Amino acid sequence: MAASGAAVAYCAAGGIILYSGIKGATIADTVKAVLAGNLNVTGTEPVLSGGGSGGSGTAAPGDTGAANAGAAANQALAKKIIQANPAYAGWDTGQEWADLVSLWNKESTWSNTADNPDSGAYGIPQALPYTKMPKAAWPPSAGGSADPATQIEWGLAYIAQRYGNPVMAWAHETANGWY
User: How far is CA 165 from the centre of its chain?
Assistant: First the structure.
């Protein structure tokens, strides 16, 4: 996926503002901490745990590999959605969760606005075409709102229907480069 410099800058700025709000730190302190490579700006445990797997392997259970605060928030949302749906029992822990995290780290880094310009895949689950998802999940440029909850719900249902569980979806991804 390619992104323009301006888009990356806006995402980075938004991530710093969101991270500052979550951690209760000033934006200036957060920027200083990021530049120093220390995201533990308030003395509490950082939201970011790992640098994102980017497909380099399976995340250990409990390690989200969240690339930024937005990814961490989308992962927390996914856990809530999973826990509310008995069809996904057990997907929020252990290897099921680790493989779901690895899958969507590789596909989109858990970004609800991830857009693959080569294939047209969009969102957290990288739906192809994005019109497979409900309209709320679509890009704003197509009349949607890039709603992460809608994308996650669609992605979980897709995994359940096509692969049965995240372990099988991740196995397909690692064997074929797509799921």
Answer: 17
Nearest in space to 178 (alpha carbons), one of 96, 121, 93, 117: 121
> pLDDT tens digits for 159-168?
999 999 999 9
Contact 17, 27 (CB under 8 A): yes
Q: Is 140 left (phi over 0), alpha (psi -120 to 50) or beta?
A: alpha
Q: Retrieve residue 124's tokens.
A: 């957290």
Dihedral of CA atoms 67, 163, 150, 94 in degrees, nearest 10, equals -50
Q: Where are the domains of the chain?
A: 1-46, 54-176
* Tens of pLDDT, residues 76-115: 999 999 999 999 999 999 999 999 999 999 999 999 999 9
The 3-state secondary structure of 10-26, one letter per residue: HHHHHHHHHHHHHHCCC
Tokens 């390619």 belong to: 2
Query: Residue 98, exposed/middle/buried by CB under 10 A (0-12, 13-18, 19+)?
Result: buried
- Give the global pTM: 0.66
| Angle in degrees, CA 58, 61, 65, rounded to 5 | 60
